[in-house]
Amino acid sequence: MSAYAKPINHLIEALTRLPGIGKKTASRLAFHILRSSPSEAQDLARAIWDVKEKIRLCSSCFNLTDEDPCLICQDERRSREVLCVVEGPNDLIAIENTGVFNGKYHVLHGTISPLEGIGPDDLKIKELLERLQKEKISEVILATNPTVEGGTTALYLTDLIKSLHIKVTRIAYGIPMGSEIEYSDGMTLSKALEGRREI
């Protein structure tokens, strides 16, 4: 039997479903929310609700956005000739935060992973190929993570993109093998982008 009141217990259980949040952290967060003012609690609830209600995929690059097309796709100052392909929105943000890349993006929303039953049709690959045929792209930078799945996805995309006679490069391995772009520091990402090479 729990020592907590049912609403507190329910909040703790809900918080433990978040990644990286164990029972102790969930309890601390629940009691912090309990001690906060009603307006702070409402702001938190509203922020969560807004994310679920307002965020959708950009119809061009498939980044998360609240307006379509997203702000990056709308930006006329960015190069339209270079396209950086990333696994997920967090990778896009990590690269964008370096301030080095000034082209456009395409978010795959995953990698090819036969063991998990994820094939090319489960990713935004068809949409990528459609973009490459419509837009005047001269180079595609493959910025997938240096993992087995990231490498498999990069090889698969390389064959498809080269058949369209578009230059394909891969970010340099300044990022340690087995790590993820999202957690790399800005300098490492900058060097990886600058040192990309043709595949």
Describe what this molecule looks like in 3D:
The chain is α/β, with parallel strands linked by helices and 199 residues long. The chain folds into two domains: 6-54, Orthogonal Bundle (Helicase, Ruva Protein, domain 3), CATH 1.10.8.420; 57-198, Dna Topoisomerase Vi A Subunit, Chain: A, domain 2 (3-Layer(aba) Sandwich), CATH 3.40.1360.10. It has eight helices and seven strands. Strands 4-3-5-6-7 form a five-stranded mixed beta sheet. Strands 1-2 form a two-stranded antiparallel ribbon. Helix 7 (148-162) links the parallel strand 5 and strand 6. The longest helix is centred in the first third of the chain and has 17 residues, at 38-54. It is elongated and about 65 Å long. The termini are far apart. The model has no long low-confidence stretch (mean pLDDT 93).
Secondary structure: helix percent:
40-55%
The CATH topology of the largest domain is given as Dna Topoisomerase Vi A Subunit, Chain: A, domain 2
Tally the helices: what do you get?
Answer: 8
> How much of the residues is beta strand, in percent?
5-15%
Uncertain segments = none
Radius of gyration: 20 Å
Q: What is the string of SSEs from the N terminus onward? A: HHHEEHEHEHEHEHE
How many strands, which pairing sense, and closed or not: the largest β-sheet? Answer: 5 strands, mixed
How would you classify the quaternary structure?
single chain
Mean pLDDT: 93
Total number of distinct structural domains: 2
Strand order, largest beta sheet: 4-3-5-6-7
The end-to-end distance, rounded to whole angstroms, is: 60 Å
Number of strands: 7
Estimate the global geometry from the Cα principal axes: elongated
CATH top level of the largest domain? Alpha Beta
What structural category do the secondary elements indicate?
A: alpha/beta
Q: What CATH architecture of the largest domain would you give?
A: 3-Layer(aba) Sandwich
